[in-house]
Amino acid sequence: MIKVVTLLFVLLIALNSSNVMANSTRVDSSVIRQVKSIFNNGFKLNKKRGTGIDIYADSILKISEEYHYIKGYGAAYELYALNYRNQLNYIKANEYFNKSLSMYEKSKDTFSIAMIHNQLGILYKMLFLYDKSISHYLSAIKLYNLINNKEDAAKTLYNISNIYIRIKNYDKAFEYLDKALGIFVVTNDTVGLALAKINLSRIYDENKDYARADKLLDEAEILVKKSGYTAGDIMILAGKGHIYEVKKNYELAKRYYLESYNKSKDNNLSGNMLQIGSYYAMLMVKSGKPLEAIRFLDKLDAGLFAKSYFEECRSVYEVYKEAYAKLKNFGMANKYALMEGAMKDSVSNLDMLNRLNNIDIIYSIYEKDKYISYLKDEDRIKQLNISKERGHYLIILFVSVAIFLSLVFVVGLLLYRNK
C-alpha cells in the first residue's frame, strides 16, 4: 500500500513538473522555425515598404503568448516598430523598437540586439537626431564585432558615413568609409563596395577633385552592373550628372540627371525623384528655360512629400524660386522663397516635427533610460505575479495530495479492520 501511495505521489509531482516546463522559456524547435519563417516574410514585406506587416507581427505575438517565447515577443515588437516607422508614426516606432530591444536582451540574442540598435540608428537619422543615431550605430558595431559579423559591421560603418556626409564633416565620413571599404573587400560584398565608392566619390566631388570622383563612379558602375543593384545605378547617374554640371557641360549633365530621374520614377523612389528632379530642373533654369523647369516641377507635386522629405522639397522650392525670378514673377518667387525657408528650418531645428506632433518622441528618446527602467520594473511585477500563481498552484497541489493520502490511509485502515 505504501509503495502504491508513493508511486501516485511521484506521478503527481511529475505531472506538475511537466506543466511548469510547458510554461518555461524552453520552446520546441518547430515553434522557433515557425516564428522565424513568419518574421522573415514580414521583414521582406518591410523592405518593399508594403502594408500588412502588422498581420505577421500579430501571428508571432499569438504564438509567443501561447508558448511563452521571449525571443518571439522581440520579433513581434520589431515588426510592429517597422510597420509604424513606414507609416511615419515615429513615437510608436520608437516605443516598439525599445520593447523589442528589451525582449532580445532577456533572450541574450546578441545578433538581434545589434539589429535593433541599427534600426534605432535609422529611426533617429530620419528624425535628424544624429548624435543618438551614431550612438546606436556604434553600439551595433560593437555587438557585431563581438559575434564576428563583419558584413553587418561594415554596413553600419557605411551608415555612419552617410550622416557625416550629410552634415558635411567629410574627414569623419572618410574615416568610417575607409573602415567599411576594407571590410567590404575582405567579405567580397559587391553592393557594399559600390556604395562605399559612391560615397567616396561624393567626398572627392565636394573637395573639387572631379577626376578622382569620376574614376570612383566608373569603378562603382562596374560593381553595380555585376550585382544588378538599381538604386546604386541611380546614384551613379546622378553623381555623373553633377560632375558634368560643375564642368558646365549642361547638356550632358541633363542627360544623366534625366536618366537617373526616370529610373527613380520607375522604381517608385519618391525622395530620389524629388532630389534628382530638382537638379534637372535647375539645369533648365541655368540653360535659360525657366518655364520648362516650372512645368517639369509641377509634375513632381512636392507638396505631397513635404512631410517626409524636408531636404528634397527644399531643393524643389529653391528651383521654383529661381525659375520665377528669371521670369520676373517676383510674387511667386517670394512665395517659394518662404516655402524653401520653411523646409530649411525644418531640417535645422525640427520645426516641422513640432507641427507633425512628433516632438514628443524627442523627449522619450532622451528619457530612454527611464523608459527601459519602466519595462524592467513591469517585467519584475509580471514575474512576481507568475511566482505567486505558481505558489498558489503548488499549495493547491500539496493540499490535494494530503487529502488523497488521508483518504488512502482511512480506506486502508477500514480494509485492515474488516479482515
Mind explaining what this structure looks like?
This protein is mainly alpha-helical and 419 residues long. The chain has helices at residues 2-22, 29-47, 53-67, 70-86, 90-107, 110-126, 130-146, 150-166, 170-187, 190-206, 210-227, 230-246, 250-266, 270-286, 290-300, 310-326, 330-349, 351-355, 359-366, 368-417. It is globular and about 70 Å long. Mean pLDDT is 81; it is low at 2-25, 349-360, 368-374 and 384-389.
Features:
419 residues; mainly alpha; single chain; 20 helices; disordered N terminus
Secondary-structure class: mainly alpha
Gyration radius (Cα, Å) is 30 Å
Net shape: globular
Q: Quick one: how many beta strands?
A: 0
Helix content: over 70%
Q: H/E element string?
A: HHHHHHHHHHHHHHHHHHHH
Rounded average pLDDT: 81
**Biggest pleated-sheet summary:** none
- Our estimate of the beta-strand percent is under 5%
Low-confidence stretches: 2-25, 349-360, 368-374, 384-389
Q: Separation of termini?
A: 15 Å
The tally of helices reads 20
